[in-house]
Amino acid sequence: MREGFLALLLFLSVTGFATEENSGNEAVQWLERMNKAVISMDYEGHFVYQCGTSLEAMRLRHQIGLNGPLESLSSLTGVPREVVRDSESITIITNRNGKLHITQQPAAGKLSPLKSIQPEKLLQNYRITLGGSVRIAGRPGVVINLVPNDSLRYGYRLTLDKLSALPLDLTVVDDKGNIQSRIMFTDIKITDIDLVSLQDSVGTTGMEKPLMLANLEANMGNAEITRKPALAPVQPNETVWDLRSLPSGFDLVRHQKSPQTGLEHFVFSDGLATVSAYLEPLDSEKAFEGYTNLGSVRVLGRRLKDYQLTIVGEVPEKTLKLMAASIQYHKS
Q1: pLDDT surpasses 80 at 123
Q2: Which CATH number, 3.30.70.100, 3.30.70.1350, 1.20.1090.10, 3.30.200.100, labels domain 232-329?
Q3: Taking the complete model, does pTM exceed 0.90, yes or no?
């Protein structure tokens, strides 16, 4: 009888492990489908963004054009603003008291909160499991849980549309289950919307004004234009900074420098969480030193030699401190 009971326990434990493993495999497959969806589909929708105690409503449009993706992100609350990205540039349009302020800079990264991720790298830092079924934005969704293996990163809960695999909800939680930030669509649809034709339209008002009209008004002297130069890639032998003992799971994915100001920008990622480090020559004795929050985003500042170090990321404070300690000055 005892042998039969032990055999039953063994069977249940193996079955439970196999079920969790199958759940993980299916969850990874869903993430791979999501990666394809966010870069290959045309879609538009409205979402709310909760960050700390603040709440914003936004509209997103994404289209695959002949020369790459076209994206438009517009605020529906607060100061009217719109960000438009194509394969070459990002243009930020802000309407303050009826006057347009336009900032243009070379394209880098994506505007859309629907970003592709790296499932194979995530498996090193997170336990990925399949959750239940939910309904968001009037659409059936499947939940994917990403539970961190350590205290250096937050947990994530993704809800993907069952039909398209587009994300409907992205919730970031700390180790106690408290929500740090959340992006939730209230409606989303796959569409053949033509952003180029929208730019040629002039029959809209307020922040519905498209980019081409904004540029037209700028040429008429009704806007203030700022153009930011591109940052140049940096080779390891072209910097005075060494990276030693980065926090576990994080790798350097981009390193750029401004030829004009000397500012260097490092981007680190674990396949999902991203941390940016900025190093800029100080033009005074005063430097920002300390720690602060911008909603769920953590910011750490330190003085390194005659440079201001600022580290920004939606990660625990511990991770920022380890990142700061890993950046060391050396003489070239």
Answers
A1: yes
A2: 3.30.200.100
A3: no
